[in-house]
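Chapter summary example: a protein plus pantoate.
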Amino acid sequence: MKIVKKISEIKEIVSNFKKNKKEINLIPTMGNIHTGHLSLLSKANKFDGINIVSIFVNPTQFNDEDDFNNYPNTFEADMEILSKANCSIIFAPSRNQVYPDGIKSEKTVFKYRDILCDLYRLGHFDGVTTIVKILFNLIEPSKVFFGEKDFQQLKIIEQLIFQNNLKIHLIKCPSIRDADGMSFSSRYSTFSKDEKSKFKKCAQIINANLLKLKRDFNHKILDNIEKELRSYGISKIDYFEVRNEETLSLSVNNESSRLFIAFYINKVRVIDNFLLY
Ligand code: PAF
């Protein structure tokens, strides 16, 4: 496994792969590699091609400086894990390499906006599409692997590929869940013991109500989840909404719908989504 930190080096490697007609599978990450990321890599292993995992904690997608500063940096451990998971190259550029003209992002995707996380993390998706477009331009992947955990992100990336007419196949990978039914996330690695047990309790509340929602769609159930979480001491809830997974518009029944959730356990933002059909 090769570690590449320079843009010039990755460009040379990519150009050699292209000359030799080798396809590239890209798995973009911000590091702190966990089971969810490994599932993207094992999906990539099902296809021909060289697996490149990018690790870059992208400053332009953080709307909160504390969140950026506290983002877990576990590069040594990540290398160890990825070396055993058929990753050929880790691309881990510095901030200056990625943003030589200063840290800035641009709003280029307007679809699937002004709802869900976009209302609460201003500029976040502009940062995401900016970095993902930079990675696409540098690495020229034929396939790119994204998890369904960040479902709105997935839809926005799909739109980015579509509107730029890119010849990139977006492979959507189902969430990998822990024993309590919640998707894995790098952010949860910073939970204290107390926060972990809060998270477990929240998972129980959500999952019990999820069963009810699946049986009989009813807005009262959504209100109940919020009430139960609040009574358990969760005070910052961004949203609990049921939306259509194609259009992301609000649903009136379970058909092609998912429950989208976002709330905080102290400073850690929990986001997830659950199939309702
Ligand atoms: O999902 C993530 O980890 C990030 O948003 C991504 C896609 C790697 C862009 O920084």
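Key point: The mean pLDDT is 96.
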